[in-house]
Structure formats: structure tokens, C-alpha cells
Amino acid sequence: MAPGLRAAADESTNPRVASALGSIAAQIEQGRSLDDILADSDRLVPRHISGLLAAAARTGSLGDALVELADQQRAARDLRQSIAGGFAYPLVVVCLASVLLLSIMLFVVDTYQEMFEEFQLSLPVLTLVLFWWRDIGLWLIVGIIALGVIAVAAIRLRQGRAGWLRLVATVPLFGPLWHWSGFAEWLGLLSVLVRNQIPLPEALRLAGDGVSNDHVGGISHWLADGAEEGQTVW
């Protein structure tokens, strides 16, 4: 059992899970039983890991469960990296364009404005708008950004991580991708737990504890409450 747990720890993409599996393997090598370790390690071992290990040990399928867990974590990591990679290029382009525009406004526009004023030229609307942005627009953007940061901090403190992630899910384009990637991670973890014969209400609670998106985790706990009352998940 200990070598299998160490192998699963090496394959895990979650540092906390890897540390927990390594610790359990070390204690098993010292002669302790898995049940005793899980009973004494509530704070060190994530609940969904301890629940999965206990259920897999009862059914004699610990090796398969560890393989499924490693595959689920790898798939979740690959999905997050894929989303991040898709946004990387447009974000870099937007940042470079912003730096270029800011440089023009700060170091180039002054010279042209002085020249135009000396010749008393009649300027087109777009040029006047550019001067307005240099004098007022930049400070307006800075003020909007500052207000946005304050609002985000207030929401984060008032509603917690789950409320903040619920708000992020409403952001166009980025929000739905982040939201549904959390659901994909949750479904993968839930399927691992259910396949190892963990009752659905308990599996929903464990999956809610194990998913990285707290908003999705809260939905999982809400579904668990309904399942315990005899309602179907649908």
C-alpha cells in the first residue's frame, strides 16, 4: 500500500494532496493501519482524500482509486493550463498596446500640441479627443481602476471567496470559462468518488470540499442537502 501511495503522491498535481499521500505512506511504513491514520489526520488530509481512501480500502480497490484520482487531478490541471494559454496571447497584445498608447500620450503628444498651438491650426475632432485623453482621460481611467479595486476588495471581504468567485463567473468571456472549468473539475472528482461506492450525498460533500472553486463547492453541498432529503440531483 505504501509504495502505491508514494507513486500517487508523485503523480499528484496538488501540493496539499501530494503531501498528505506521502505522509500517509510514511506512517503505514511505520506499522500504523490506514484507518488509524485517517482518524488522526483530519486536519492534515483533505476530507475528499480521506473519504476516498477509506472507501477504496473497504472495497479492496485502493490502487485503482489512486490511479483515478491522479488522472482526475492531471485532467483538471491540463484544463486550467489550456484556458490560461488561450488568454495569454490576447492579454500580452492588450498590455503592449496599452504601454505603446501611454508612451505616445506622455512623451509625444506634448510636442505636437505645442506645434499646433504655435501655428494656430484648426484641428480635427480626433486630434482634440487625443489631447483630451492626455489631459483628463488618463486620470479618469486611473480613478475608475482605483474604484474598481476598492469595490473588488469590499466584495471579497464581505462575501468571502465563494461570493467573489460567483461574481467572477458573471464577467463576459473569462467568467464562464472559469466557472465551467470549476464544474469540470468537480464532475471529475465526483465521478471518482461515486465509482468507489461512496454514497451520493457523502460524495457530493466530499467533492465540494475537494474542488478548488468555492462557489462550485457550495453548489455541491446544496445538492448534497437535497440528496439527503431524498430528492434526485436533477
* Spatial separation of the terminal alpha carbons: 38 Å
Largest sheet geometry: none
Number of helices: 10
**Mass-distribution shape:** elongated
Oligomer: single chain
Number of strands: 0
| Helix content range | over 70%
Rg, please? 27 Å
Average of per-residue pLDDT values: 85
Share of residues in strands: under 5%
The SS-based structural class is mainly alpha
* Residue runs with pLDDT of under 50 for 5 or more positions: none
Q: What string gives the helices and strands in order?
A: HHHHHHHHHH
Structural features, described:
With 234 residues, this protein is mainly alpha-helical. Helix content is 83%, strand content 0%. It has helices spanning 2-11, 15-29, 34-40, 47-59, 62-107, 109-119, 125-168, 174-195, 200-210, 214-228. The chain starts with a helix and ends in a 6-residue tail after the last helix.
Topology:
Blueprint: H1 2-11, H2 15-29, H3 34-40, H4 47-59, H5 62-107, H6 109-119, H7 125-168, H8 174-195, H9 200-210, H10 214-228
Helix pairs in contact: 1-2, 1-5, 4-5, 4-9, 5-8, 7-8, 7-10, 8-9, 9-10
